[in-house]
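Q: Structure tokens for this one, please.
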Amino acid sequence: MAESGSQNASVVAEQLRAWNANCVSEVIEFHGETTIVVPRELLRATAEYCRAHLKFDYLSDATSLDRFPVEPRFELNYHLTSIPNKAKIRLRTRVTGADPTVDSMVPVWPGAGWMEREIFDLMGIRFNDHPDCHLEIGYNEELAHLVYAGADILLVPSAYEPCGLTQIIGLKYGTVPVVRNTGGLADTVFDANHAPKPYHERNGYVFNDFNWQGLESALDRAIGMWHQYPEYFRQLMINGMRSDYSWNKPGQNYLNIYHHIKAP
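A: Here is the predicted structure, written as tokens:
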């Protein structure tokens, strides 16, 4: 059975070469298993061909390897099974540490979704067109509130922000804001590490410089807290939900001024 599977897998490599001579960089045989190394830019097209024409209808696993300091730094492996042909192969691609990006396999095998999310969390490899990364252009208040409620971190890297409701809404949902130190953002978000406030009043992360380095620095701190100190991250969420930026206090302040003016 193992020998038959190996023979079938070797045939697959030849069929792929016949389809596209550039799609197979290397074929590795080890312990009766066949690994086909594919260039990153051809990975999804090769996977689509494997499923549509070679009957590899089942993705059993997706794994990754960090080979630091060797470059290309990362290896990404998709373990495929053809139930009709009783064959197994592994598609492998390699990506650099400077650009760890590859096309998602979710359009080919929807089950790849959670596997790629785990690889992203562990290795930082980014997947183009992954359904968990989505752009929505337009106004949809119901969807916006679902996003606020479902997110862990809210990024508001504004150049200018006279007031800002985004971070205030996020705070009420327990979504930790990462904001630039400007305008209303600076008035409502207090950095978890550096704010001159007691910890129970700190509710997010703030950066000063309007560039990617400043944004990445604050985002790294937020994600690091989420990964390594979840109990402290949860406290930030609770601090945010306790924040009161309603008209309760300002309204009373106005009334106090009016009463003071009106007094004889």
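A few notes: Strands lie at 26-30, 33-37, 58-66, 74-82, 87-95, 101-103, 126-128, 153-156, 176-180, 205-207. Residues 141-248 form a domain with the Rossmann fold fold (CATH 3.40.50.2000).
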